[in-house]
Fold each of these.
Amino acid sequence: MKEFSEPMSLISDKKFTAGDARKPKFFDFPLKDLNIIELQNLFMTPKTHYLKSKDIVTGRNLIYTVLKSLNHYHHVGCVTATKSECLDQNILNLSQIRVTKKSFIETVEIFLVENPNIDFAWVEITAELYIKFPEHHLVKLLEVLSANQQTPVIVMQYV
């Protein structure tokens, strides 16, 4: 099971971490060109990656900056507990999918089969998301999103 709630005391207002769960890398703002290239590499690698940021604004700014600099992804999905209006208008809020009589995961699986064009996704791990979806649903969601190993999935945790 993935661990979402580990504390990260090294993050300050001007730092964030990126990488996988075992090898975090620290970046400072403002980002240098080499940092942006490293992050672009991360965003282009089709597997699950983990980012940590101090707050949702900083985290989204980072994601938007890297996605815009890549100019590659056209069907971006986000799982978040915040209001849809807070996301860029071109980003699909996967948490707004209407859950039918089937389970949440089955509903997401059906949605992804019907909309196979999602080419990048990120999940915002917040206290509100934990209230909306139990942790085992989030772990299963990550498995579903990255099942074909062709979609980069970013797990963004705010600390």
Amino acid sequence: MDDARRAVTEPGNTASNARPKAAGQTSGPTPRHPRSRGSRAHRHRSTEVNTRSQRRRQLRYATVATIAGLALALAGLFALLLRTQRELSLARDGLGAATQAEQRQATQAAAEAQRLTAQLQDLVRGRLPQPLRPLLIDTLIELESAPLHSVLFTQVGTAERPGYEYKLICRNDGPERFQPRYRILLFNDAGIQTGSADLSDSADAIRLDTAGMAAGEGMSFSGQVRLEFDDAPRYFMVISLAADGRLPRLSR
């Protein structure tokens, strides 16, 4: 019995020291469970994984959109290049056709001009006095009609007011003296006389005086043609004058 009382009154005995706890009262801090810390870390990792996945998807979508935009831009540029090339090809074909048409027209016009020129020359030859020669500038024209040897025409003055000079070469192949009396006549395309020059007005003929050219002597006579119209001369002829200066009858 003493033993039982001692057990009841002994400090540290759980039976005697135990007191009932009030409702809701805790005896100390509740220890954290290791499983709750692991679940929070798992949730954090899941959130990071989801965020990374979303960023990857967004980057993928942006890349796809950029590539699609570039593809559309390249397709538009390629279509523009094709249209420009087609338009240039059409323009080149049209220009080539227009050029060929103009060349054909120019060829036809040149042929028509040659035909009309030939007709005009035929008409002129039919109504101008003979012998008629084409007038060439800066070209020595052989006359081959003794004592006339050759003649040279030179254009002087300006383009607005042109003038013409001549140089007539004579050679006396006869046994007697010869007094040259000649007149040079110029004609336009229509056969109208536009100018003339008398050999007697040349300074060379004045120096020759009345003695004339000796047998076998050759001389050149130079002077300026008097123009009566502004038309450019196209033909010429050299006629011999009588001793009294009268013109001979011109044949057609």
Amino acid sequence: MTRKEQLMLEATGKKYLNIYLIELNKLCHRSIGMDNLISLDETYRIIEKIKERIPKEYVFRDCGDFNNKEMLRDVFQGAMPSFVNGAYLFTEYSKNCGACLLDKLSDFNTDFSFDSEHSGIISIVNKEITMKILLDFYEEDGHRIDVEFFKKS
């Protein structure tokens, strides 16, 4: 990344930082602040590692009614062993503001509301960068959610 690109990202990040923190606090069980965000350089290094290590084809997918939180909780409960060392939480703002570092997967609020995140796409990657959970929620015959697991083989 060139210095000019980095300065542009930082300027954009400053513009959206407060909105990003509000969204993160809706998505997490604990308070999220600046100290939970990793640097843009580190965020981009992690994104590159994700591209290198985690296949683009999912190993598991479940779709359903967004309001069926039991389904989402069950999926997260099954993923817990792969996230014991923490996780990186990505939303659309992460590329401009930095990914959010979670101590554990259970810090994520599976009971989040449909409007908690504006783009409808959330990625959670374990610290080892061997597994990713992708949440894609949208309006189609009501509120729907797709949950996909990607795992390094």
